[in-house]
Write a structure and sequence with these properties.
By secondary structure, the protein is mostly helical. It is built from 10 helices and 2 strands; from the N terminus they run ββαααααααααα. α5 packs antiparallel against α6.
């Protein structure tokens, strides 16, 4: 069917004639909240995903990063394996240390199972949050820094996951994920909860893992802004 659709061997055809191209601008529609409001929304998102998310990937990281009981209670081997490098990545982001950030990223990429491993999904959430945050006035310009992190992912994971990571490094991601970033930065608590509930429906654990990345990424962007103030 060419550009108008896809034809399969069993005779089934998928029409794309009414499909629209998703081209995000990166700009938030709502007004940016003050730091205290964003912090409250980060807490709402964290509480919500821990209640309703699929934590078999790296979801349990939120238990150890943010005041939870810590790694001793992890059930997921992926969260346990990722924890030291996630902490290292967040430290590197706060210090704007691109060498350390790339090193931690290389240790994380490909960790997990599936076409988009859990740590990759988390990294995509972190990267898209940092880029969208900087585009909308949170923290300093991080586009070049994040591009370097994205480059460190090349050749270390599946072809599909690598493409998702490179897109995230340029500020593009699943619409549900970018909506969550925006609602944390501009919306109310009910909007944040709804956006989390929508995002965790992506895949099996991918949605939850991306939400984890968004929470960590928005928090990191906010800390960069506070450090520059």
């Amino acid at each position: 069917m060419g550009a108008q659709g896809l034809a399969f061997q069993n005779g089934f055809c998928l029409s794309l004639s009414n499909a629209e191209v998703y081209e995000p601008t990166g700009g938030f529609e709502g007004a940016l909240l003050r730091s205290g409001g964003i912090e409250r929304n980060i807490s709402v998102a964290r509480q919500t995903v821990l209640l309703v998310g699929h934590l078999d990937g790296v979801g349990e990281l939120l238990e150890a990063i943010g005041g939870g009981p810590g790694a001793a209670r992890f059930r997921s081997p992926f969260s346990l394996a990722a924890l030291p490098n996630v902490k290292g990545l967040l430290r590197a982001i706060r210090a704007r240390d691109v060498v350390a950030a790339k090193k931690a990223t290389k240790e994380l990429v490909g960790l997990g199972i599936g076409l988009t491993p859990s740590a990759d999904d988390m990294l995509s959430g972190i990267m898209v949050s940092l880029v969208l945050g900087s585009l909308n006035g949170i923290g300093s310009d991080m586009k070049g820094f994040v591009s370097s992190i994205g480059g460190a992912c090349r050749g270390r994971t599946t072809a599909l996951s690598q493409e998702f990571l490179l897109q995230a490094a340029s500020g593009r991601a699943n619409e549900r994920v970018t909506r969550l970033v925006e609602k944390i930065c501009t919306g109310g608590a009910s909007e944040v909860r709804a956006a989390v509930l929508d995002a965790v429906k992506i895949g099996e654990t991918s949605g939850t893992d991306m939400v984890v990345g968004v929470i960590l990424g928005v928090k990191a962007a906010l800390e960069l802004e506070e450090a520059a103030a």
